[in-house]
Amino acid sequence: MGESVDLIIESIPQILMGLGLTLELLFLSGILGLMLAITVLLMRISGNPLLTWPAMIYIYIFRGTPILIQIFIIYYGLSQFEWIRESILWTLLREPFGCGILALTLNTGAYVSEILRGGVLGVDRGLLEAGSALGLSKRHRFIYITTPIAVRLAIPAYSNDVISLMKSTALVSTITLLDMMGYARIVYAETYAPYEVFTSLMVIYLIITWIIQRAFGLFEKRMSRHIRK
Amino acid sequence: MEALTGWWDEFFWGSVVVVEVFFVALILMVLFGLLGAAAKLSDNKLAQKIASGYTIVFRGTPEILVLLLFYFGSAIALTSIAQIFDPEIKYVDIPPFWAGSFAIALIVGSYATETFRGAFQGVDPGQVEAARALGLSNFKTFIYIKTPAMWRLALPPFGNHMLSLIKDTALISVIGLEETVFIAEQATGTTGEPFTMFFLVGLIYLLFSTIITLSVMVLEKYSNKHLEVSN
Question: Within B122-193, where are the H helices?
């Protein structure tokens, strides 16, 4: 028993060496993914088939395949093509970090754009009609009425997606990156103590999940303060 | 495309493994989900605590971590048990097929727990009261009234759980299950065409996802058909 405690105490600092990379992947691909999601959402609701169709195909492909395979296609697959290796993109795609960010961004972008679309569709029609009765243009209605309400409606689902993005970052350990999962696998290979090493890591992930949930909970409370009164 | 010559059979059998894992995990997932929901809805404080611990842990940690913990952890436990009977034994493990199916079923089951709990709570209490008034026993009320009504509410999120399940099967290649990703890695080794191989795996999964999505649409239509008539 004492041996296990020692192992846990020894392995936690080693695992935490990967915390920086895990958070970096989470924030970078989270922000880039959100920007991508907004772009795709605007394409999807534009009413122009030339924009709607590519958006729908993108969402269909990235939500219909496992993220692990998306990571492998980008990291291992793209190097098969000579023109990619000679293009400027190769500086990004040569590094596992760039591939990880690209895969996570494309994956979360597809899910988040559907979440945001749910928020937009949830906006009460009556409010938009009131907006046009007041003489607001279509663009102004979207910016001042649809957006704030859609954001509030989308927060709970979005916070779940940030948590799944955080969980997906653990998969970059399969393409040699040393995030927390990557370090935990090294420590496991040295100690053969799966319970101690992996349970310690589990606790660390649970703490991050809890922080994400709490932060979004507070944000949602703030966004819906007019309803509470 | 020529690179795929000779590999089609392998990919076919890999896909069969994916389907097998999917169905085994699906049954287990429904079981874990129903048990979890029953525990959360029971009056027993301990059962409620265990069930909420279950959903917090498995919804908040990466799938690959659960998978590795489960596979390597069970190997250590089994090996030490086996060594009690025969000190000669060096290593015993649960086959990746079973360890993997069990692990992904536990993960998705934690999401299904919340789905089933919400769906049971969403059943109209008037219907349950009507069943009581008609003299149906608790068991019959559960089977004939609550379950069909719950099922209709649970179906849309349940479809998403099935999609998560099929996509999580890809992870089991990490512990050495010979499914499509594993085969794509082998094929890449001999042909040097990683894109072709992983792209094919992507297409296989896209096909499975599409089949699941379409089946859920059909099921939803079927389970809501009494509502369409009234419209």
Answer: 125-133, 138-140, 147-168, 180-191
B62 and A76 within 8 Å at the Cβ level: the answer is no
Contact B61 A209 (CB under 8 A): yes
Digit-coded pLDDT (tens) for A177-192: 999 999 999 999 998 8
Q: Choosing among B55, B61, B107, B212, which should be mutated to test the A contact, i.e. which has the most A CBs within 10 A?
A: B61
pLDDT tens string A208-218: 999 999 999 99
The CA-based angle B106-B112-B115, given to 5 degrees, is 160
> Which chain A residues are within 8 Å of B210, Cβ to Cβ?
64
pLDDT for position B231: 47
- Min Cα distance B164 → chain A (Å) is 9
* 8 Å CB contact of A188 and B68: yes
Residue with tokens 């819906």: A224
pLDDT tens figures, B16-69: 999 999 999 999 999 999 999 999 999 999 999 999 999 999 999 999 999 999
Q: How far is A193 from chain B (nearest CA, A)?
A: 8
Buried b (16+ CB within 10 A) or exposed e, B135-150: ebeeeebeeebbeebb
This prediction's pTM: 0.91
The per-residue pLDDT for B20 is 96
> Are the C-beta atoms of A172 and A26 separated by less than 8 Å?
no
**Residue B229 pLDDT grade (very low, low, confident, very high; cuts 50, 70, 90):** low
Is B47 within 8 Å of B113 (Cβ atoms)? no
Residues of B within an 8 Å Cβ radius of A: 56-57, 59-65, 68-69, 72-73, 75-76, 163, 167-171, 173-174, 181, 184, 188, 192-199, 201-202, 205-206, 209-210
Q: 3-state class of A41 per DSSP?
A: helix
Note whether A201 contacts B65, CB cutoff 8 Å. yes
For residues A5-28, average pLDDT: 93
